[in-house]
Write a structure and sequence with these properties.
Elements (H helix, E strand, L loop, with lengths): L43 E9 L4 E6 L10 E7 L13 E9 L2 E9 L2
Parallel strand pairs: 3-5
Antiparallel strand pairs: 1-2, 1-4, 2-3, 4-5
The protein binds copper (II) ion.
Length: about 110
């Protein structure tokens, strides 16, 4: 006969830090509603720097293009409708919208600025 005395002392001292959460202090009425609709027509100011009718392109100094994540700069655009190039002269101020069309940044909407 064997007397097995198993003295198992499991000392678990788990003293977790008690965190008091103050959950009743949120201001739910202070939310701002931002209407950001990507499909909305957002016209950008531009100024014609060069018109290349043969290539169907126009060089524009343009303001920030939010939809293309592009800051203001001067660059060459394709135009969706080549007829618009007849209505653009160097120095003209225009309002336009540009989008990537098959990887090419293209003016997809154009109107003369008043
Ligand atoms: Cu640009």
């Amino acid at each position: 006969m064997k007397a097995l005395i198993t003295a198992t002392l499991v000392g678990i001292a788990s003293l977790g830090a008690v965190s008091v959460q103050a959950a009743g202090d949120h201001a739910g009425h202070d939310m701002e509603m931002q209407a950001t609709t990507a499909t909305e027509t957002q016209l950008v100011n531009g100024q014609v720097r060069k018109v290349d009718k043969a290539a169907g392109k126009v060089t524009l100094a343009h303001g920030p293009l939010a939809n293309l994540n592009m800051p203001a700069m001067t660059m060459v655009f394709r135009v969706k409708d080549a007829a618009w190039l007849d209505r653009m002269k160097v120095g003209d101020k225009i309002r336009f919208m540009a989008e990537q069309v098959n990887g090419v940044i293209t003016v997809v909407h154009f109107e003369p600025a008043k």
